């Protein structure tokens, strides 16, 4: 179904802008051209598979965090599938091995438990181990995969050299919305700890968290880091951006349902922070609202609240040039990554529909949600 005017779009709605997505992908394509590195889409951050026809020509495949994401990549992206999990389940490993190209284990124990079996199922499968360089400049501890007592990746002290004959690559992930300067420091620690093993590898995966498409990111430095590393060790390099693919490519459009006053003016919307934008509650994150500012900066300040019974279902306080009216649209910017992959139907609230705004300006509704989506996931 296609709609050409914003006034006729359903609400709430996730709206992906094709032109912005392609602009991000062109930056990725430039990095690939200059380095020969392979780039995978991290499905944990962005899994809008109805947009994969746009993305597929630019990337080499997807990285998955388990069976379901691996199946989605295999069925809908149809290129390389790289699967990593903090711990694989016995009943999943056969199917994962069959459809994956790379299989990355979190610990030597899991590697030794499943490696032989996985290779018997898929002899062309490339096996790897995620390592922990024990260094990260992550802005918050909740994001830090190398923090104290982290369960993610194998430290040097726990590395088991007995897996080396079967291990083709090492995977490291220590970044979160960071630049190439942070990657440079991470690589220094990675080489310091695991440099003995790197020459034995066919590939090294630099993981995700590279904020490649953010304004100000030093792409040329990333290119130099990749090329230097490749030349030094003669290995293939992989990157796994998720957020960088969907960064600033679309919005969540909501509607004001009511305005109440209790010490402050409160606009109740037909969306939910808890159900549709959970990072605004569980992470140190504040969504940007189009044409709005911080509370008090403009003439009219409102607390934006969700339409669930959770008292804390609040997006935050924002100010506007004009008073809000029932029926007004509130547009939350940059809502393509880490939103729909985390969304729920808590409290029976309707999931936002999904649409793509094509380069010619037309809008295609690619998914509509209703009662059956709420009902069928419960039993």
Topology:
Blueprint: E1 2-3, E2 13-17, H1 18-35, E3 38-42, H2 52-55, E4 61-64, H3 67-77, E5 80-84, H4 93-99, E6 102-105, H5 108-121, E7 126-131, E8 169-172, H6 180-194, E9 203-205, H7 219-233, E10 236-239, H8 243-246, E11 250-261, E12 265-269, H9 273-276, H10 279-282, E13 293-294, E14 300-305, E15 314-320, E16 329-332, E17 353-357, E18 363-367, H11 371-376
Parallel strand pairs: 2-17, 3-4, 3-10, 4-5, 5-6, 6-7, 7-8, 8-9, 9-10, 12-14
Antiparallel strand pairs: 1-18, 2-11, 11-12, 11-16, 13-15, 14-15, 17-18
Helix pairs in contact: 3-4, 4-5, 6-7
Count of runs of 4 or more consecutive helical residues: 11
Which fold name fills CATH's third level, the topology of the largest domain? TIM Barrel
The coarse silhouette is globular
Category from helices, strands and their pairing:
alpha/beta
Q: Which percent range fits the helix content?
A: 25-40%
What is the strand content? 15-25%
